[in-house]
Specification:
Helix content is about 5%, strand content about 55%. It is mainly β. Strands 1, 2, 3, 4, 5, 6, 7, 8, 9, 10, 11, 12 and 13 form a 13-stranded mixed beta sheet that branches. Strand 7 and strand 8 form a beta hairpin. The radius of gyration is 16 Å and the shape is globular. The model has no long low-confidence stretch (mean pLDDT about 95).
Length: about 200
């Protein structure tokens, strides 16, 4: 039986779809495929006796069509400052072996390209978000402005990674790793707090 674990903090993602990404509703990607980078920063976390506070991690995914009908290729990235026990705990959580929300992605994934440990910088400042994985990826986004200046929210969609997210538009989404080379701006972004538990 996996050890009990919990992670809470900030999450955001950027993809190549137009705002707001149709993939989360089960529709086809705007441009025929979806390339998405998702980042999380743990404000408070624990797996068994191992504290996970202050660590960041990310998931990059490529889907060659509708995300509910095709299998994804994914790559996992973890902040290199994680100690060996922290790395082991996060590998188990992110790989789905420890249960909880990450395990729910398992049936959608066709191939895991690998897991890498790299310097990571995650920033959440008001309506702005940014993530850098040194030498590999960068994304920056800001919330779009809705009616009367309010944030635009989406909730309850089948593929959302949080119960409710704020909709944004990214200024940059770039990633060069494995066979991928992404570089774009102006696509969709979502952000939210997150609160995961397992198993």
């Amino acid at each position: 039986m996996p050890e009990a674990w919990s992670l809470s903090g900030d999450y955001f993602e950027c993809c190549n779809c137009d705002v707001a990404c149709p993939c989360v509703f089960g529709s086809d990607p705007t441009h025929g495929n979806c390339t998405v980078l998702v980042g999380w920063h743990v404000k408070k976390g624990r797996s068994g006796d191992e504290a996970l506070d202050g660590l960041s991690f990310a998931l990059a995914a490529y889907a060659p069509g509708n995300m509910l009908k095709t299998k994804w290729e994914v790559a996992i990235y973890v902040d290199e400052k994680a100690t060996p026990p922290q790395r082991k705990a996060l590998e188990s959580i992110l790989g789905g072996q420890a249960g909880g929300p990450p395990a729910g992605l398992g049936p959608l994934i066709g191939k895991v390209l690998g897991i890498k440990f790299a310097p990571m910088s995650f920033h959440a400042d008001g309506k702005k978000r940014s993530l850098t994985i040194r030498g590999i990826a960068e994304m920056k986004s800001g919330a779009i402005t809705g009616a009367d200046g309010a944030e635009v929210k989406v909730s309850g969609a089948p593929l959302l990674l949080a119960p409710e997210v704020t909709v944004g538009q990214h200024e940059k989404l770039s990633l060069t790793d494995y066979s991928w080379k992404w570089d774009g701006a102006g696509g969709n972004s979502f952000y939210s707090a997150f609160d995961w538990k397992g198993p």
